[in-house]
Amino acid sequence: MFNKIIKRGHRKVAKSDGAAVDYAYAPTGRSSGPVSTSNIVVNHASRGGVPPASSQLQQLPATAGMVPLPGTIENLPMFRDVPVSERQSLFSRKLQICCFQFDFSDTLKMTREKEIKRQTLVDLVDFIQSGSGKISETNQEEMIRMISLNIFRCLPPASHENTGTENLEPEEEESYFDPSWPHLQLVYELLLRYVVSSDTDTKIAKRYIDHSFVLKLLDLFDSEDMREREYLKTILHRIYGKFMVHRPFIRKAINNIFYRFIYETERHSGIGELLEILGSIINGFALPMKEEHKLFLVRALIPLHKPKSVAIYHQQLSYCITQFVEKDYKLADTVIRGLLKYWPVTNCQKEVLFLGELEEVLEATQAAEFQRCMVPLFRQIARCLNSSHFQVAERALFLWNNEHVVSLIAQNRNIILPIIFEALEKNIQSHWNQAVHGLTVNVRKMFLEMDVELFEECQRQFAEREAKSQIQDREANLFLNGMHEEKLRKGHWLEEEDELLVAAVAVLGERKWDALAKAAGLRRSGKSCTLQWMNYLRPNLKHGRITAEEERVIIELHEKWGGRGLREGCQEELIMK
Prior knowledge:
This protein has helices spanning 2-13, 54-58, 87-98, 111-130, 137-151, 159-163, 181-196, 202-208, 211-219, 226-242, 247-265, 271-283, 291-301, 310-327, 332-341, 348-363, 367-385, 390-397, 403-411, 413-430, 434-450, 452-488, 495-508, 513-520, 526-537, 548-575, and strands at 16-17, 45-46. It is mainly alpha-helical. Among the domains are: 1-162 and 176-242, Leucine-rich Repeat Variant; 269-362, no CATH class; 497-575, no CATH class. A two-stranded parallel ribbon has the order 1-2. Helix 5 runs antiparallel to helix 7, helix 17 packs parallel to helix 20 and helix 23 (495-508) crosses helix 24 (513-520). It is elongated and about 140 Å long. Keywords: Cytoplasm, Nucleus.
């Protein structure tokens, strides 16, 4: 268990490709005095990230990552209480205070210092939000470093890894709330206000909010604290909108998170939030749609239906999928076939979700694309109609409440009705749920009103198939029963069986051996009884060596009748003597 927790910690820190974070770090809550930060660096980038250069470390404030001594932090004046000329200097000093780290596992420890940092962060947020003045480029750089120091951290082990409950469903896991949220929230708010501020020059800001920074933000989406994920979602969306240079990179990085989730871990806390961002991004795609975006649909979005935890993010996923079809109706066939590929077999609740998404896609589907996929689609719908889980059958029948779907079905009723007619009839005949039975009657009536002639032809073919199936079932039962009896009656004869056979022959004679076997209560075939009687039990049966006369008779019979005639002739010519 300890190894799993350690591995989780390393994975949370090191996921994204890129350079190491260029700031120093001292472990929180363990220092009782000044801590040297010159050689302590945390890499948040994975797979070969390199430490920052020494020149970068020298630019950091001396307090970076340190736990302050009690009484060493003093309240600074608020921005509104100092002249405009001193505000940039005050801004820098406040950033240095916010670089201090605190241990929130003990709520009674250093409460004064924690409150000073909180008030300082509030003042920084108000200053950015008020637009009192542009921040100098140096202060912008220091602010992003302070933000990085606070938010880029080792996430705690996921609850399922911390407890060892590997099979716990994600929706059943308890919510986690980061104890340091009073400070984290304000740091995130500061970053958000900086990004959305009209005073922020993107040409300058993109030097600090670079690819490495974006990757580390994306890593934090795996946080189990939903409050943090909400802030991350808003901030990343704003970065995508403001920094056009980062857009392709952000899309590709999200792709990579999806690939790892689908094909490796099937565990990630922020898939829903990432899909929400993508929903807005897809809505803004220009037409004609780029091939890159279509590949993203096929390789990432559609396979997201595969994981067991799809119910957690299905609403956002369904919105993204529908956006693609509404943008380009020609993608409907690709999407529907993708849904059929990942259609659940045993998970009924997941199947209900798929049917709901299918209806949304069909609403945006045009006739030409519908015709390309309607045969496999309605084969699957027919299986859903006959589902013993009433919610699945009911949700499938609700498709006929959608006017656009009904119009598509009506245009192609010659192909669709023969596919689903049997499912409708079986529901009426034997489905246990009354609501499903009633909905099926309504759908059946709808088809009858569409095309009486087609309906009657389907009904006739169904009756023929049913009659043929019943005949085949009876024949199969007879065959299986015969095989069953044959198996029971093979093997060595018991003395009791011999006695029963002799008694039966004495009463009924040597005829109709199948009936004789049943009358005697023998679990033997008629053929087996015949052979046993003729070869062993017949009273005038001769035993011992064959005489010369008998040998002559056998030869003559063989020449006259062959092997089969020899057996019958021997019984008459030799045995009867």
